[in-house]
Specification:
It is a single chain. This protein has 8 helices and 13 strands. The chain is α/β, with parallel strands linked by helices. The protein has one domain: Spore Coat Polysaccharide Biosynthesis Protein SpsA, Chain A, CATH 3.90.550.10. The strands form 3 sheets. A 9-stranded mixed sheet has the order 5-4-1-6-11-8-12-10-9. Strands 2-3 form a two-stranded antiparallel ribbon. A two-stranded antiparallel ribbon has the order 7-13. The longest helix is centred in the last third of the chain and has 16 residues. The mean pLDDT is about 95.
């Protein structure tokens, strides 16, 4: 299967505090649902989406666990090449992406998070890749949330709707008091070379604290310079597996899916 984008980045350095005690000795991405770790579902998605290179951003404390997992998994995904990079300090997933800057620079790539499992008629990364092939713009995944809860999330403002589910974004606001919409950003992006360069510039001044540099920080300079960013409301079932309730719901969904 050919794909306009062939690289997917999986930040897996997170410690998974919301999944304690499951993550006491196991990295969040390796917590199992049924008989497979969360990460395995993302590798299946990558393979079905025509990806060639899978970039893992891990941390030195758990790198050996991921190396052991990948050593057992490589034969199941012969079409994928694995690349591991370390995020040395937990100062935001924007810095995590920059850990692989030399590999990623100059090309578009997809970012997915292992605790955001999405199941639809086709893999969400394949849909993102096809949308990019058509529009050649950065894309973020959007999910409608109840309006009264929109202030709890990072939400977008809409400049223009290209279709009922595809929008030009005017702004991104994290947990706003007065939300511009009820469309929240979830764990999937098409990242373009200009966004990566914006991140690199922002890193010079970003504080060295937890969440000191986020992926979404790159949106602001891109939009202020007249760049276009698209948001896509995906027609699929999403589970936030970063918490115990979401993990349980995903497990029940997969049990039913395997029976059908």
């Amino acid at each position: 299967m050919s794909s306009p984008i062939t690289t997917i980045v999986l930040p897996v350095a997170g410690r998974g505090a919301r999944l304690m005690p499951l993550t006491l000795n196991t990295p969040k991405a390796l917590v199992p649902i049924l008989d497979k770790p969360l990460l395995f579902y993302l590798l299946e998605e990558a393979a079905l989406s025509g990806m060639k290179d899978v970039v893992f951003i891990t941390n030195p404390g758990v790198r050996k666990q991921f190396e052991a997992f990948l050593g057992k998994t490589t034969s199941q995904f012969p079409e994928l090449q694995f690349h591991l990079y370390d995020q040395l300090e937990p100062w935001g997933h924007g810095r995590a992406i920059l850990s692989a800057y030399e590999f990623l620079k100059g090309k578009p790539f997809i970012i997915r998070f292992s605790d955001d499992l999405i199941f639809g008629e086709e893999p969400v990364s394949l849909s993102l890749s096809r949308l990019f092939d058509t529009h050649q713009k950065p894309i973020m995944l959007l999910e409608a949330v109840p309006p009264e809860r929109a202030s709890l999330y990072g939400v977008v403002g809409i400049q223009e709707s290209l279709s009922p589910t595809l929008h030009r974004i005017s702004k991104f606001v994290e947990k706003p008091k007065d939300p511009p919409s009820n469309l929240s950003v979830v764990g999937g992006y098409v990242f373009t070379p200009d966004l990566l360069e914006h991140l690199r510039e922002l890193e010079k001044e970003a504080p060295q604290v937890p969440d000191g540099l986020l992926i979404s920080d790159s949106f602001h300079p891109a939009l202020s310079l007249g760049g276009e960013i698209l948001g896509w409301q995906f027609p699929a079932q999403r589970f936030d597996c970063g918490n115990l309730e979401g993990l349980h719901l995903a497990e029940e969904f997969l049990k039913k899916k395997s029976v059908i």
